[in-house]
Specification:
Layout (H helix, E strand, L loop, with lengths): L2 E5 L3 H13 L3 E5 L2 H10 L4 E5 L7 H10 L6 E6 L3 H9 L4 E5 L3 H20 L3 E4 L2 E4 L4 E4 L2 E2 L4 H12 L4 E3 H9 L7 H15 L9 E4 L3 E4 L2
Helix pairs in contact: 2-3, 6-7
The protein binds calcium ion (CA).
């Protein structure tokens, strides 16, 4: 089910947005200040975020900037007030995908939500080439290069990377990797995942002892950062 996170402090606005999104068939999570919004953007794993600019505790612009710094690429539509023209520009600069100006038509907002969801779904489903750091991957041909030189990766390693990259910025647990990459073909143990990740780091990280792309999340799993 598609999940929308609404980060907004005005009760009437929250109510209107929530009703409309639910009517569209979306699951809705709500945060009423910037800090809570930041937490829910990670914890709830929404498919899209509607983010008010003027928020208590932490501004919408700071929320957006922080999410992007953490590698979270969830589409963000900013809700700006007409009097805050500069917020639009800054919003896009800090990584928002779009904005609507209050008061906006809910119909127009929902049309934009649908458009961004479609675009995001396409990107996730069709990763063919992906470049990070010094590494270029081609998931169609199963070829990889590092600093322009051919890099040997096993099919399993490609699948691990594909899964991590699809979920880049998010925490991926070892169980998730076992289910998605290994499936139920055998009964691998979680150490298998760690061993594969260690080998993968040797191949793709500039300094495997200090990983920059496949980050360990203590006791939970891993997070991929471009
Ligand atoms: Ca507000």
């Amino acid at each position: 089910m598609t999940k929308v996170l609404i980060i907004e402090d005005e009760p009437n606005m929250v109510l209107g947005l929530k009703d409309s999104c639910e009517y569209e068939g979306y699951e809705v999570a709500v945060a009423r200040n910037g800090k809570e919004g930041l937490e829910k953007a990670s914890a709830e794993k929404p498919d899209i975020i509607l983010l008010d600019v003027m928020l208590p505790v932490m501004s919408g612009l700071d929320v957006c900037r922080t999410l992007r710094t953490r590698g979270i690429e969830t589409p963000i539509i900013m809700l700006t007030a007409r009097s805050q023209e500069t917020d639009k520009v800054v919003g896009l600069e800090v990584g928002a995908d779009d904005y609507v100006t209050k008061p906006f038509s809910i119909k127009e907002l929902l049309a934009r939500v649908r458009a961004h969801l479609r675009r995001a779904a396409k990107q996730v489903g069709e990763i063919e080439n992906f470049t990070f750091g010094e590494v270029e991957l081609n998931f169609k041909k199963y070829t990889a290069r590092k600093r322009g030189e051919p890099l040997e990766l096993s099919a399993r390693e490609f699948e691990i990377l594909r899964y991590l990259i699809r979920h880049r910025g998010e925490i991926v647990t070892r169980d998730q990797l076992l289910d998605e990459v290994w499936g139920y073909e055998s009964s691998p143990i979680t150490r298998t995942v760690d061993n594969h990740i260690a080998r993968l780091r040797q191949k793709i990280e500039p300094d495997p002892s200090q990983p920059r792309h496949i980050i360990t999340v203590h006791r939970i799993g891993y997070r991929f950062i471009e």
